[in-house]
């Protein structure tokens, strides 16, 4: 397969993915932070704070309902018409829906209409997010040098971490506002700011060329007419594998949403302190993600991913315990170790691990469908955890059990995958198609 003769293209593709993901997930995580700290007080009735918290977490998770559907639609577009079109659309849709949230009336102003409008805007965010990481990962993988695919695709997740950092940082000065100012107008500022960063991301992405792999398939007339049919015919086992491996995302939402709420609202740890923990952990992750990816290009994707998943299953226990003990020093140390270092091993590697399971014809669809179904549980993990949370000083234990089980499932699923770090890009996913042909189930959608 011909690769681009422009040696700057892999770097430009990585930069475009980094910036786009930062913009997308700034918007996405701004919502998560607001759902933990603010939305229960302004979009729901104040009569029952626990019910309001559960309902607010549910609006965070509801976006994940739309993500599988969005994955099917955007995966089809990306595999049939190109990665660039999907990445431009997802960026604009996320920016629009986030800006709209900042304009919404509160429960006190509009009653039940307020949470309904909030859910509708959140659903649009879910559609956008469904195609973002799969599209960005496909784009960078197909532009990257053969022996550095994990490194270049890791920029997608580094961008995600940068978006989370920006989303958290913007709430730290807002935390200095008095309660009345924060709940009346201060909370809207982060949502309005997304308009500026969307413009930057759009400018970068519109100048990036389509990938050589996709152009080669188009030239040969091998683009799948129905990518989803091809995917489910030849790659159903890999899609299932990704669904279960993607449960590692539960660690992320428990760390960034549930434990934030638990620490601030239940253990009465200062809000700015916990937001600082999130920021520092993600600053560390900015360096850890590419470092793990470089290692994965040398030793393989599977051992790095599995280490991260198993490590998270262990570390979630002392981290939540430290919060329950109001031990701020341990909260900082364990939070940075859990999210910044260990989770980054799995988080930085999955774009390469998942993308390399498929050939170019169905890569975006395969990644999008598999990850978004798996991420759905991650999205509802704070809601599930709020329901599991018990009373008393050990009430957090069921949450830790739930998080550990999902992380271990992810590790086992990744262990069943084929190692692909030394497989040329034009051979990725070919074994599945060869098997289908040999058993009489060859793809006929091309």
Structural features:
Growth Hormone, Chain: A, 20 helices, mainly alpha, 446 residues, disordered N terminus, 2 domains
Model description:
This protein has helices at 9-37, 39-42, 49-81, 83-103, 107-110, 113-143, 149-169, 171-174, 179-184, 189-206, 212-220, 227-234, 236-245, 249-266, 271-299, 301-324, 328-355, 363-388, 397-415, 430-438. It is mostly helical and 446 residues long. The chain starts with 8 loop residues before the first helix and ends in an 8-residue tail after the last helix. The model is unreliable at 1-5 and 432-446 (pLDDT under 50).
Give me a quick take on this structure.
With 446 residues, the chain is mainly α. The protein has helices spanning 9-37, 39-42, 49-81, 83-103, 107-110, 113-143, 149-169, 171-174, 179-184, 189-206, 212-220, 227-234, 236-245, 249-266, 271-299, 301-324, 328-355, 363-388, 397-415, 430-438. The protein is 79% helix and 0% strand.
Fold topology:
Blueprint: H1 9-37, H2 39-42, H3 49-81, H4 83-103, H5 107-110, H6 113-143, H7 149-169, H8 171-174, H9 179-184, H10 189-206, H11 212-220, H12 227-234, H13 236-245, H14 249-266, H15 271-299, H16 301-324, H17 328-355, H18 363-388, H19 397-415, H20 430-438
Helix pairs in contact: 1-3, 1-4, 1-6, 1-7, 1-10, 1-14, 3-4, 3-6, 3-18, 4-6, 4-10, 6-7, 6-18, 7-15, 7-17, 13-18, 13-19, 14-15, 14-16, 14-17, 14-18, 14-19, 15-16, 15-17, 16-17, 16-19, 18-19
Major pleated sheet: none
Q: Assign the CATH class of the largest domain.
A: Mainly Alpha
Question: What's the structural domain tally?
Answer: 2
Order of helices and strands: HHHHHHHHHHHHHHHHHHHH
Question: In total, how many beta strands?
Answer: 0
CATH superfamily of the largest domain: MFS general substrate transporter like domains
Alpha plus pi helix count: 20
What name does the CATH topology of the largest domain carry?
Growth Hormone, Chain: A
Q: Mean of the pLDDT scores?
A: 85
Kindly report how far apart the N and C termini lie: 18 Å
Q: How large a portion of the residues is in β-strands, by DSSP E? A: under 5%
Computed Rg:
21 Å
Strand pairing plus helix content: what structural class? mainly alpha
Sum up the overall morphology in one term. Answer: globular
**CATH 2nd-level architecture of the largest domain:** Up-down Bundle
């Amino acid at each position: 397969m011909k690769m681009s003769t422009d040696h700057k293209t892999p770097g430009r593709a990585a930069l475009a993915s980094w910036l786009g993901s930062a913009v997308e997930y700034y918007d996405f995580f701004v919502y998560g932070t607001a759902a933990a700290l603010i939305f229960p007080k302004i979009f729901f009735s104040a009569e029952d704070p626990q019910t309001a918290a559960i309902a607010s977490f549910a609006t965070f998770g509801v976006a994940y309902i739309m993500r599988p559907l969005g994955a099917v639609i955007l995966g089809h577009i990306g595999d049939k018409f190109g990665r660039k079109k999907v990445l431009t659309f997802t960026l604009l849709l996320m920016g629009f829906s986030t800006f709209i949230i900042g304009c919404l009336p509160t429960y006190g102003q509009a009653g039940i209409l307020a949470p309904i409008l909030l859910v509708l805007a959140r659903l649009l965010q879910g559609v956008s997010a469904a195609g973002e990481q799969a599209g960005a990962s496909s784009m960078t993988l197909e532009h990257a040098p053969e022996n550095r695919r994990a490194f270049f695709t890791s920029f997608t997740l580094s961008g995600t971490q940068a978006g989370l950092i920006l989303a958290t940082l913007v709430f730290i000065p807002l935390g200095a506002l008095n309660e009345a100012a924060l709940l009346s107008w201060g909370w809207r500022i982060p949502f309005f700011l997304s308009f500026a960063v969307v413009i930057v991301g759009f400018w970068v992405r519109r100048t990036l060329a389509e990938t050589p792999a996709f152009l080669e398939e188009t030239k040969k007339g091998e683009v799948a007419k129905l990518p989803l049919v091809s995917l489910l015919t030849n790659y159903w086992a890999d899609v299932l594998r990704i669904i279960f491996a993607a449960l590692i995302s539960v660690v992320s939402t428990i760390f960034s949403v549930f434990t934030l709420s638990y620490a601030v609202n239940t253990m009465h740890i200062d809000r700015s302190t916990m937001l600082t923990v999130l920021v520092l952990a993600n600053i560390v992750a900015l360096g850890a993600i590419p470092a793990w990816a470089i290692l994965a290009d040398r030793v393989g994707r599977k051992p790095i991913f599995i280490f991260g998943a198993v490590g998270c299953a262990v570390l979630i226990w002392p981290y939540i315990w430290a919060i329950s003990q109001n031990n701020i020093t341990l909260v900082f140390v364990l939070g940075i170790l859990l999210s910044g270092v260990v989770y980054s091993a799995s988080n930085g590697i999955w774009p390469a691990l998942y993308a390399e399971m498929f050939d170019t014809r169905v890569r975006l669809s395969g990644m999008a469908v598999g990850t978004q179904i798996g991420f759905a549980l991650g999205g509802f993990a704070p809601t599930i955890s709020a329901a599991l949370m018990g009373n008393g000083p050990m009430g957090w234990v069921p949450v830790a059990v739930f998080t550990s089980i999902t992380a271990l499932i992810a590790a086992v699923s990744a262990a069943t995958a084929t190692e692909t770090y030394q497989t040329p890009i034009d051979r990725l996913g070919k074994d599945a198609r060869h098997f289908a042909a040999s058993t009489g189930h060859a793809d006929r959608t091309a």
